[in-house]
């Protein structure tokens, strides 16, 4: 008999504060939404944060005019003002993920019959990496009460057999109850996993969030060590020995098998210039390394033991059956169907805080649909012609003459926004077409024109590009 794990249609929340079997606090959804909307004027918060010298009335007029003329702000407005919903604060019976008389199987029983556990509908899981909390002990509630250093929305979709990862920069500006306009990373510290889920859901136009996982920083180190290390490419030397940070980083350039401590250094290294975005890129590179490591024949048999060892470093409301269904689903996903991108946004020169990341979903309703399961009626996605996309050329072939040759060839094909970026320090045999903004179809169209190259949907290319072509030794001239 096949056991099906699925989240069902959402129902109304109970009016009483209650505690679920997995320790998630439940509360009235509508009252939270009202409190959220009435927590303060976001334009007023924006006015003060930007430190504008213009008269307030002029700021309000400009706000209204811009809001009426830019269609892309419709999506952003929906993300900021519509009511919120998620499954984090609902009982298992309400979301159809449990039953009173269910027998809880042992981990060994689950693992031996893993093929029986299947996802039957899409599931969104909010994953948060929590910054160290001074003075806390691993595994205690206090150790999960810090700011979320890493925020991912992972969508498992059995209908099209895809796993899509949306990285949310921790400096993304959003509204938090009683705090006004602030960074999304503060939500977990202010109100735990329930508030964090609500804030992320609201920021993404009411994206459903079915489950959550919080991982302590020591949890990442322990996981990587339990897996025997993870192989990643370090694109440049990373050194930070500032005693004020209490965190020393020293990584050399090149392919390396990182241990737990080095993996933490890899994802936490930050330098001025692009805010949190380059760290997000390294987080995605580490995710790919972890995925490949978890699929290793030497690691798979150890997963039940690893799950038990890692228990104290994870806080989640996932049940064992759901974990097994996700593992089974992941093991059967083709590599091309594992896709990643970054939540679109900009850095504003007007902001008092240069690291503030401002949401910009102009024309990106396709991203909300594909990566969050959100459909916004009456708003269509703006599809750019292929020839107008920004295409970055990065040489990884050790043949410097190829860079300009590729640029000239693409321009002859009608591409108007082609530019060179610094060479990739790794020597690659195969050309890679990196789809930076999540639109795999555009990458496949370019692949047909080139007639070679591997398409990869991830945000690991040039941050300013739509597509980054990383030239390998297989590059050929074409007409």
TrEMBL record:
Residues 147-293 form the Cell envelope-related transcriptional attenuator domain. Residues 1-26 are annotated as: Disordered. The chain crosses the membrane at residues 57-81. It holds the Pfam family LytR_cpsA_psr. Keywords: Membrane, Transmembrane, Transmembrane helix. Residues 7-22 have a biased composition (Low complexity). InterPro entries: LytR/CpsA/Psr_C, LytR/CpsA/Psr_CW_biosynth, LytR_CpsA_psr. It comes from the Bacteria. Residues 389-475 form the LytR/CpsA/Psr regulator C-terminal domain. Belongs to the LytR/CpsA/Psr (LCP) family. This is LytR family transcriptional regulator.
């Amino acid at each position: 008999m096949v056991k099906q794990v699925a989240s069902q249609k959402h129902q109304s929340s109970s009016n009483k504060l209650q505690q679920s079997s997995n320790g998630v606090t439940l509360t009235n959804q509508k009252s939270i939404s009202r409190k959220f909307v009435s927590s303060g004027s976001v334009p007023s918060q924006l006015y003060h944060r930007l430190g504008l010298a213009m008269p307030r009335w002029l700021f309000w007029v400009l706000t209204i005019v811009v809001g009426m003329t830019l269609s892309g702000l419709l999506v952003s407005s929906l993300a900021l003002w519509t009511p919120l919903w998620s499954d984090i604060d609902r009982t298992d019976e309400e979301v159809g993920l449990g039953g009173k008389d269910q027998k809880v199987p042992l981990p060994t029983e689950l693992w031996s019959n893993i093929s029986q556990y299947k996802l039957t509908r899409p599931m969104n899981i909010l994953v948060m990496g929590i910054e160290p909390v001074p003075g806390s002990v691993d595994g205690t509630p206090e150790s999960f009460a810090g700011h979320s250093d890493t925020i991912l929305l992972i969508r498992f979709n059995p209908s099209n057999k895809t796993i899509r990862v949306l990285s949310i920069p921790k400096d993304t500006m959003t509204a938090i109850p009683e705090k006004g306009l602030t960074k999304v990373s503060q939500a977990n510290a202010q109100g735990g996993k329930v508030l964090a889920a609500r804030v992320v859901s609201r920021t993404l136009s009411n994206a459903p969030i079915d489950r959550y996982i919080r991982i302590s920083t020591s949890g990442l180190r322990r996981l990587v060590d339990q897996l025997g290390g993870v192989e990643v490419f370090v694109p440049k030397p990373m050194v930070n020995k500032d005693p004020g940070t209490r965190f020393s980083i020293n990584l050399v350039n090149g392919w390396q098998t990182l241990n737990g401590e080095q993996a933490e250094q890899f994802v936490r290294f930050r330098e001025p210039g692009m805010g949190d975005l380059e760290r997000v890129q390294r987080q995605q590179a580490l995710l790919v390394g972890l995925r490949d490591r978890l699929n290793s024949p030497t690691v798979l048999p150890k997963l039940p033991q690893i799950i038990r060892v890692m228990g104290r470093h994870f806080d989640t409301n996932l049940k064992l059956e759901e974990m097994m269904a996700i593992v089974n689903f992941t093991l059967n996903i083709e590599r091309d169907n594992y896709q990643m991108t970054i939540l679109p946004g900009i850095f504003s020169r007007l902001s008092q805080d240069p690291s503030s990341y401002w949401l910009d979903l102009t024309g990106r309703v396709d991203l909300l649909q594909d990566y969050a399961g959100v459909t916004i009626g009456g708003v269509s996605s703006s599809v750019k012609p292929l020839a107008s996309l920004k295409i970055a050329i990065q040489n990884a072939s050790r043949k410097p003459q190829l860079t300009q040759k590729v640029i000239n060839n693409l321009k002859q094909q009608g591409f108007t926004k082609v530019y060179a970026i610094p060479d990739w320090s790794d020597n690659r045999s195969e050309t890679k077409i990196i789809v930076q903004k999540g639109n795999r179809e555009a990458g496949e169209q370019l692949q047909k024109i080139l007639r070679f190259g591997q398409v990869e949907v991830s945000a690991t290319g040039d941050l300013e590009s739509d597509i980054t072509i990383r030239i390998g030794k297989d590059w050929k001239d074409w007409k």
